[in-house]
Amino acid sequence: xxxxxxxxxxxxxxxxxxxxxxxxxxxxxxxxxxxxxxxxxxxxxxxxxxxxxxxxxxxxxxxxxxxxxxxxxxxxxxxxxxxxxxxxxxxxxxxxxxxxxxxxxxxxxxxxxxxxxxxxxxxxxxxxxxxxxxxxxxxxxxxxxxxxxxxxxxxxxxxxxxxxxxxxxxxxxxxxxxxxxxxxxxxxxxxxxxxxxxxxxxxxxxxxxxxxxxxxxxxxxxxxxxxxxxxxxxxxxxxxxxxxxxxxxxxxxxxxxxxxxxx
Length: 263
What we know:
Layout: E1 2-6, E2 9-13, E3 22-24, E4 35-38, E5 45-51, H1 57-67, E6 72-74, E7 89-92, E8 101-104, E9 109-113, E10 116-121, E11 128-136, E12 143-149, E13 154-156, E14 159-160, E15 169-172, E16 177-180, E17 188-197, H2 203-210, E18 222-226, E19 236-247, E20 254-262
Parallel strand pairs: 3-4
Antiparallel strand pairs: 1-2, 1-18, 4-5, 5-20, 6-17, 7-10, 8-9, 9-17, 10-16, 11-12, 11-17, 12-13, 13-14, 15-16, 18-19, 19-20
């Protein structure tokens, strides 16, 4: 079994779907070609049609949301807009609020919430997962990585933790908003907010995100590494599309067929 990492989430890949990689042109009139290299000179782009190994349903649905490029991402690197152009809204809690500021974050910059509530406009379907980094000054002034899904699961620093207080963040699917409360007790910083629609979290996904050494690629881009790449490549950026999904003969595990296209 070969393995592939998509946004640092490791997934098994059927090795029969990795090879061969064939040369072709985008303007093709022929039928299905399994894996192809678009011939454009030195900037050739590649495209793969892949099939996963067995996945549990939680992992499968998480990958569907990620590979299809759903969701959105705020880096807070001195900007208020998301990767898809949505603007964060800061609402003052005081008549004369202190200035909100950007400062050093987990990877680059982060946003400090003082006398403000932060509202992020995001699409929240029936199932979703949000992940972010949070530092509360009044608590212990260190960064925590938090993953919360619509099923009520909560992971802190890669471990399941239902006791950790996250009452200062609330998702409102009916309004398609996530709200972080500011104020004296909640003065702190927010960084690297990422939402994945149509997905529930599991321990493997939470740990993969927690151990990221670089920011997640803003949707619909995907950071891809693994056996489909050339030996001299460590990582590329792709965009993806789920082609098919089905249950394995076991009746519980799932298989996904999907396409990756280098950008």
